Fold:
Amino acid sequence: MRVGLLLVGLCLWLPAQTRLTVAQLVSFIRSSIKLKQDDRQVANYVRKLQLVQKLDDRTIEELQGEGAGPKTVEALHELRDATKDLPSPPPPAPKPAPVVIPPPSPEEQRKIIEKAREYALSYTKRLPDFICTQVTRRYVDPSGLEFWRQEDVLTVRLTYFEQRESYKMVSINNKITEQSYESLGGASSTGEFGSMLREIFEPETRAQFRWERWTTLRGRRTCVFAYQVAQERSHWQVVYQKREQIIPAYRGLVYVDRDSNTVVRIVLEALLPDTFPIQQAATSLDYDFTDIGGNQYLLPLKAVVRMRERKFLTKNEVEFRMYRKFTAEASITYETPAPLPEEKTKEQPPKP
Structure:
């Protein structure tokens, strides 16, 4: 039925315009490939066409590579021979040059960092008391090739009260549990509500910031800065099987919203010595605006924590869901919410 519709449509169109350009021919062939039209019927119609431009081998090879059938290719070769004395198609119009947005001046960059620092150091004081659901999906891969296998799903009641975080396990794989969050084996994480942010921007940390690029994150123009923290100034701990721990140097990226000077993403990578059992440890944390009690607050949205011990990989995907104002009666559902939809594009080029 689709074959008949396409070819009948072409026949209705041909009386008004029987002589086609190469671009129109290519568009027709690509449509026939996409709709899986019958090769013999497409070839028969190609033989009825007349072109006003020369068809070359390169165009035929490209269409064949895209899926044109053998009979259609044979008909295209006949068209090539019939049009060898016609003029070549005009070259395609050049694409507009991308608009290059210059980076802020060094003085402007310094002001952006200082405003972001002011925001980061007062971040926790801006937050209301609340509770939320923290869902952690933990994955492992013994092969080291990122063939992930889900280990478990942890649902936690996270309470933020008087600028302190507390965690209470609710369920493991949707089964109610009394196990404490602190007793969990495997990889886990805390500190998403301000401590990571504060650590990077503390004056005592002396993080070195360097302009990286512009980007667009969740539709908003964003400044990206690279940073690095020396080991002697670091307070970030990496713990191995609760037996060994290290405070390494680290580096990463901070994403600062251009209009509000708020930090909307942190990327952090440990610089680990060869003697430590874990060879790689990295975290990324995204913030987004969330309504609590009728007011908008910038709060953690999602974090991804990755570690590697030789070939053995672990990955935690942490989501923060169902924020609401803290009350003594506030409760949490035992049902784990479905994963957040994956962002099609984490980053986009900046819009002019």
The mean pLDDT is 85.
